[in-house]
Amino acid sequence: MGQVGRNDPCPCGSGKKYKKCCGKNNVVNIDRLLEREILAQQDKIIDFALINYGQEITEIISVYLEEMDIPEEVEELFTFLMDRWIIFDVPIDSENKIIDVYIKESLKSIKRPKLKEIILSWNRGRPIIGELISKKGEFFLLADIISDQTFKVKVLDDSPHQPETGTIIIGIIVPIGSDEFTFFTTFIDVPEELSFSFVQDVREFYHSDRSADSPEKFLSDKFPALLGFAFLEREITAETMIWESYHQQLVAEIFQKGMEQLGHDHVFIEMGLMLWQRYCEYEEPIINKPSVYAAALHYLVDHFAFGDMTQKELAGMYQVSASGLSQKYRHIKEVLEEELEMIRNEVEKIIAGNLVDEDGVETIPFPRLEMERHLLEITRDIEGKEFDSIEDINAYLNQPNRKKRKTAADKEKAQDIIFDAYNAKGKRRKELLKKALKLDPNHPDIYNIMGDDATSLKEANAFYREGVVRGEKQLGQAYFKENMGHFWGIIETRPFMRAKFNYGQTLEALGKLKEAIVQYEELLALDEMDHQAVRYLLFAAYVKDGKLSQAERLLKKYPEEHNAHGLFNRCLLEGLKNGKTERYKKLMDKAKKQNPFVMDYLTQKRSLPKLMPETYILGDKSEAIIYADLCGELWQKSGLL
């Protein structure tokens, strides 16, 4: 800030001369003073809303809690965000929102002109779901996940929580200047393991919503539903969805039963159910023969994803005529043409995740890298350019014919090629790796891909080890010391972290348990927040190695009361140390309540599937499968089952 003369207007916006205001005491920080008043106004708005409209707010939230069946453990967080959304986006009478009423009634009591100007602008407060592009001091640069519009948001509270670059953030933002915003009270961030699916769900919902006038209007109108994507963690079934009639639900149930009978993954059942619901919204069909619609829907999904069955075969399975099936299929396909086009790419990703190559090696996609790629592209695009405001940045990024900066350095070119290689197969993949290797032989992801494609465990281990060695060389010792503890938050470290994670797992698979433990421990030291879920591998390794004290310390460092890993591991540790005590029994009851499916897999009443789920839902079979796959052998050798 420049030098302020004693007779100049005070920069704090009070309207007084500097010598009569903040100039009286040079230790007063003018910006901080205004920020404290902004935070105080936020508290007053919350109090105003609850005192004057508390009943209306409670009723609105109660309807959503009931209709959406929000889990009890996240009700408080859901309510917190809904309170703020209602204040800024829900008309409380025929003309005004709560924020409008507050501004009208409270503006006269605000003495400082600058603060009054800011509060007047808060009728433009809006929801934000954005990716954290960068952090500079107290400012976040957020990119809206639908429009890519960027917002410069100042964090005013003193929360120690600092999300990392790439995090998806949800909140309400209000203006505090011509090109700056702040969060209204605070924000939440979406867990990294849910980020990709959450972003995909939001974007697909936006593109399928034919009533959406603009991304901002969509966020404002659909905010509760979008929160549902972040908070709801249960499978979609015919029984849990809302239907306009009994016959619509009956079609859904018959379809679901048919898909389950053939053993199809639930993700395809969900896809079919959601398509059927959308078709019903558009057409409101008169359903005389539910089985015909169910068979047509089954053929639609099968034709889209598998191509395994003919219309005649499905007609026989559902005991309907092939001509009736064909007729309904063509009509459903025609009505849902836009929806089918939008999900085509997503279906291809899902199928790709279930493919096995000719050598019997599973090829698993890395959708996370798409987020990394997007973030790097934006960073490169604005790097080295000077902008006077956020509007200038947005105008630059939104130019229809804008040419993106060409990658000049060999490392950048290699990185772009590696992103392509992750999504390629066969000969094309090998050609891309050769190109990347010439440009940047020290890039760890080159060796990660080679390890993924290796024909033996020993060969894979050697490639991953090479990735670790090259990554250490690329980053340098000083870099490790400087960034110890928060490595994953820096995008350029992630290829190395992936290599080290893969190296540790293959060491363990080769029987080199103690060496694997060293890798896991070092990964946790580098990334204390454990974005790769290394703690679960390390706990199992400690128990295998008889290091129960270390396992206990690990559980205390990462106390988890909400998932199978945390609860069943506590139970296992108690049983191994002290036998089936009363504490063990209480812990077991609590663990079973969280996930009732785990014990069936631990006791081998249920067999683990050949293809493991890539993600899981808390309390679901998918979570039970992943836990039993990692810790089942420990339980079976424990004598506790």
Report how far the terminal alpha carbons are from each other. Answer: 69 Å
Q: Quaternary state, please?
A: single chain
DSSP strand (E) fraction?
Answer: 5-15%
Q: Extract low-pLDDT stretches.
A: 347-368
By DSSP (H or I, 4+ residues per run), the number of helices equals: 27
What sort of overall outline do the alpha carbons produce when their principal axes are compared?
A: globular
Structural class per helix/strand content? alpha+beta
The total of beta strands comes to: 5
Helix content: 55-70%
Main sheet makeup = 5 strands, mixed, barrel
Name its key features.
single chain, 641 residues, 5-stranded mixed beta barrel, 6% strand
Account of the protein in words:
- It is a single chain.
- The protein has 641 residues and is of the alpha+beta class.
- Helix content is 59%, strand content 6%.
- The chain is built from 27 helices and 5 strands.
- It has helices spanning 30-68, 75-89, 98-106, 113-120, 192-208, 215-231, 246-261, 266-283, 290-305, 311-318, 322-335, 337-352, 368-382, 390-397, 410-422, 426-439, 444-453, 457-475, 477-483, 494-509, 513-526, 534-544, 548-557, 564-578, 582-594, 598-602, 621-638, and strands at residues 126-136, 139-144, 150-154, 168-175, 181-190.
- It has a 5-stranded mixed barrel, surrounded by 6 helices.
- Mean pLDDT is 84; it is low at 347-368.
Secondary structure elements and their pairing?
Layout lengths: L29 H39 L6 H15 L8 H9 L6 H8 L5 E11 L2 E6 L5 E5 L13 E8 L5 E10 L1 H17 L6 H17 L14 H16 L4 H18 L6 H16 L5 H8 L3 H14 L1 H16 L15 H15 L7 H8 L12 H13 L3 H14 L4 H10 L3 H19 L1 H7 L10 H16 L3 H14 L7 H11 L3 H10 L6 H15 L3 H13 L3 H5 L18 H18 L3
Parallel strand pairs: 3-5
Antiparallel strand pairs: 1-2, 1-4, 2-3, 4-5
